Every structure is written in C-alpha cells, then in structure tokens.
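[Meeting: bench + compute handoff]

Bench side (C.D.) handed over the final construct sequence. Compute side (W.E.) agreed to return the predicted structure before the next meeting so the bench team could plan truncations. Sequence as handed over:
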Amino acid sequence: MSSDEQNNTHGSLLGKKLVFGTSKELSNYRPYDQRQKEYTEFIIGTDANAEPVLHTCNPGQLANYFGANPGSPHYLTPVFFRREVLSKYYSNPEKYVVSDGRISCSSLWGIRIDNNHDKYVIVYLGDLGRDLSNAEQLYWKSFNVPPDGTISDVEWKRGIKGEFADPKRADLLFKYRFEMFQSDWEQVFGWPLFKPLAEKDQHYYTAIRIPLTNDQAEFDSQILAITKLLIDSLNESEIQKQLSEKVPEDKGISKFNTFLQLRGAIDYDTHIKFLRDLQTLRSSGVGHRKGKEFEKIAQIFQIGEKDLMAVAEEILRNAILLLEYLDNTFLDEEKADEE
C-alpha cells in the first residue's frame, strides 16, 4: 500500500490464493464418495445342520421393496448381537450416546438399533453396511450370534408399522419417564424437583442402564448414578420453601417426606422406603467397604438370590413407580385444575 499526499493519490495491492479442498469423491459424503468400501459378513440364520449362514451387509447386494437383488436377503433382515456390544459405547459417554433406538458418535455417524429386546441388540443388515465403517462392522461382528426370535414389539410398532411406542426396557423407560416428569413438574410448580446434573456429572445420566454383565463394579456404578439423580439431586432449597417451618436436621429424603405429608399425599411410604434403602445401598456398598450394613441391605434387594442385572432392573422399575406416583398425585391434579 502506498500514498502520495502531494498529488492526492492512493494505491493498494491485494493478493489472493485459492486453497483447494478435498474432492467430492474423497469427501466421505454420500452420494459423492466413490471409494471402494469393504463390507463384513454377518450371521443371518442357520442351515439344516445348525451351521451359521452369513451374508454381506453391502446394501447394494440386498433385496428391498423396490425389486432390487431378488433372491438375496432383505435390507431389513434382523441381525442379533449380545448386549455386551454396547459396552464400548457406554464406557465412553463423551464420545458416544446410546439412546432409545439409536447409537451416535458425535456428529460423525449414527445407527438405528433395537435395544428394547429382552436379550439382544438387533440391527438391520442393510443399516450395518450403510451406517458403520468396516472397522465398526468388525467390532460388531465379534458379538454376532444366530437369530433367536424376532425384533422387539417396540421396534415392530415403530419401524414396521410406523406407530409411536414408548420404550419397554426398564433403563430406557426410566429415562423417558424422567425427562417427561421433570418437564411437567417444572411447568406446574415452576421449579424442578430434581436439580439438573452439572455438566461434568452428565455422564452419570447418559450411562444409566441395566448392567450388561453380572459384574459388581458395573452394578456399583449404576447404583451411584441412580442415587445421584434421584437422591443427591433432590431440590432441597425449593422443597424447603414449600414447608411452613424449617427443620434444620431434616435433609434430603426426610425433607421430601415432610413435603409429601404437608401436601396431603397418601400412600407414599413405600416410595420413601425405596429411596432410603437405595441410599443405604449406595453408602454401604458403593461408597464404602462392604460390611455388615451391606449384608443387611443386600437381603432387602435380594442381592445374591438374584443376579445383579435383575436387581438393577428391579431398582429402575421402582424408580419408574416413584415417578408415576408423583405424576398421578400432583401433576394430574394440577393439570386438571388448570383446565
């Protein structure tokens, strides 16, 4: 840039450089990505000798409802996997999200799954090829088992009949009910009954699940997560505002018990006992060395009589009953009054 004040002139020079991006063919975006993708074969059935029948998950080699590849397995052929396949994704909640009917990896990829089945995770053969890289396909293949039954009722209604359907498994249903309850309670009362988790604690909620194995460490982590959500997060300050007088020694569950009593609730003792037992299970079995106190509370939850997966499922079912009780006792009544 230069200037000449005497002759009142001014000049400038602007340079530009064009930086070429990745070609469309190498962009990894359909339909431009023309690179040869490798596809894995998965078990889709068994033959007369009970030997596994495998077929590629390449969508281009599967039949569909438009007449493609007649005689080949259909795109919507269900492929069965042991539930432990989800362990990789649950153990890294900062990267992966396992939700009702879906797994996603940030904004990189996502795949539809049937995780409402009682025993397995089921994915359609064509989706495995379309949505997963070959590396992810190989990971899933290590958990692949022969078909055992069919897709869940939830997936049948959603994916085949195109109907709305609530989740069925206790962990998925609990999250669904919890989110609805939080929204409805705050809409009616103006404050959340359970305070939102801090950002650094969000992984506790994300990873809530029925344990994938009968492992004590995984069970303990689930008890910690559920108690953090239902007990540690009780909104004591807002509950206190609803009480006629302050009782200093009342904390958490006791204050919530007083709130229910003063609001005229009935038949809530079972739910308060559940919260107290859950807190004891956490404090005696998760937060400290397991001793005599744990042995007592273990009998209440039938730990040892049932496997830990069944115990965790029962705890989640009781948590759902708590939310349903609060909804029926307070929210339905308030909504009716508003109408």
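W.E. noted at the follow-up: The radius of gyration is 27 Å. C.D. will use this when planning the next construct.
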